[in-house]
Amino acid sequence: xxxxxxxxxxxxxxxxxxxxSCAASGRTFNNYAMGWFRQxxxxxxxxxxxxxxxxxxxxxSYADSVKGRFTISADNxxxxxxxxxxxxxxxxTAAYFCAARSNSGLTQRYEEYDYWGQGTQVTVSS
Length: 126
Description:
The chain is mainly β. It is 0% helix and 53% strand. The chain contains no helices and 11 strands. The protein has strands at 3-7, 11-13, 18-25, 32-39, 46-54, 57-62, 70-75, 80-85, 94-101, 115-116, 120-125. The strands form 2 sheets. Strands 2, 4, 5, 6, 9, 10 and 11 form a 7-stranded mixed sheet that branches. The chain has a 4-stranded antiparallel sheet with strand order 1-3-8-7, with no helix packed on it. Strand 5 and strand 6 (57-62) form a beta hairpin.
């Protein structure tokens, strides 16, 4: 029903920047929420950021580990969400996944997201 495709991941040196993109297709979203999660090998899935889009505007939420460095934004018309990542650290190395909810509402719980992309790898070298 919904397909999410992430892009933008690559190898980058510590202190550098990347912008990840997540494009949704298969349906039109009006009121919805989208989030970014990451997972390193042998580690649990970790919340990164989320954004809620509605007729009255949007709200954002960030993990403490990325506050001040990462910025999430969404393009409602193009059904695309972005994650701007600055001041990258080796600890940011992970596969980054985009997720979407079929209803609006900001949440950090991965169980409450309905659709997932295949992931894009971000590797930060020291």
